[in-house]
Design brief:
Number of domains: 2
Strand order of the largest sheet: 1-4-3-2
Strand content: 15-25%
Oligomer: single chain
Radius of gyration: 17 Å
């Protein structure tokens, strides 16, 4: 699964507020397509699916050819109307001059997918990975921690609530690069 949750920590260490457009939007497996075809998806009408989910699930339709449909899981919204209003606010906040891509490689992301992301225009990007990826210049290898119940899970928190990977990355350097 790909997750995007640095915003709180970045806001704490910087003097400006870090705005994540997708703070409460949970995306599965289609993160790469979303980044690669961002303009396309942002121009699509958000449609809501009827399902057994406890929160609204929206969909942005693909082109039935090379761009897949993606589902958006609004796990912090109580109804489709609120989710849609929040989606529109998030879309309006996108600043192309200040776009960053941060992802965790916990679900077997392929080298091909990472290469597709290579050319996405943004200020900086990073993939945190539990295996060395020398072919991906923007990857950060996080060595497995043998004392963790899952040595490859660098998202685990220590006693103080700080995630293991947060001890391995230079946030300021990432943002200023």
């Amino acid at each position: 699964m790909l997750q995007l949750h640095w915003r709180d920590h970045l806001s704490q260490i910087g003097e400006t507020v870090f705005i994540s457009n997708y703070k409460h939007v949970y995306k599965r497996t289609r993160f790469f397509a979303f980044c690669i075809h961002l303009d396309y998806y942002l121009s699509q009408k958000l449609e809501f699916l009827v399902c057994d989910s406890p929160y609204p699930v929206g969909q942005l339709r693909g082109d039935n050819d090379s761009i897949p449909s993606i589902s958006l899981y609004f796990n912090h919204d109580r109804d489709p109307e609120t989710a849609k209003a929040n989606w529109e606010k998030r879309k309006a906040r996108i600043n192309r001059e200040n776009l960053y891509i941060i992802l965790y490689n916990l679900s077997g992301v392929t080298l091909e997918q990472l290469r597709e992301l290579e050319n996405v225009p943004c200020k900086n990007k990073i993939v945190l990975t539990q295996v060395p990826l020398p072919a991906v210049s923007w990857s950060l290898y996080i060595k497995p921690v043998k004392t963790h119940k899952d040595p490859y899970n660098y998202l685990e928190k220590d006693f103080w609530g700080r995630r293991y990977f947060e001890k391995k990355i230079d946030y300021i350097g990432f943002l200023n690069q």
